[in-house]
Amino acid sequence: QVQLKESGGGLVQPGGSLRLACAASKTSVVIYAMGWYRQAPGKQRVLVARWQTGALTDYADDVKGRFTISRENGGNTVYLQMNSLKPEDTAVYYCNADYLEGQGPSSVVWGQGTQVTVST
Questions:
Q1: Whole-angstrom Cα distance, residue 94 to residue 46?
Q2: Spatial CA neighbour of 53 closest among 69, 76, 32, 31
């Protein structure tokens, strides 16, 4: 089973930047999509940014122009560069991946989450 490990969260002041990373534990699978979601206290988990095979990307409206998702060339790590952070970006950020392993069906896996806090 593939596992995802997020890193890079922390406390940052408004206007600052953070870079999140999400690494898959296995390189023998075909990951065709990876995404970042976030969940603020008392709210539902929502999509922040998503990368798909073919370098297709998608962003939530409230992060467009501030956040950039990218994938490591030839690897199974995805990054989320977050600039111009706002207090409303405070949330637990989760990574997920859609992948194929061998001849099996498509599977989805989630990471454990990393806290991002934007505050003075």
A1: 10
A2: 32
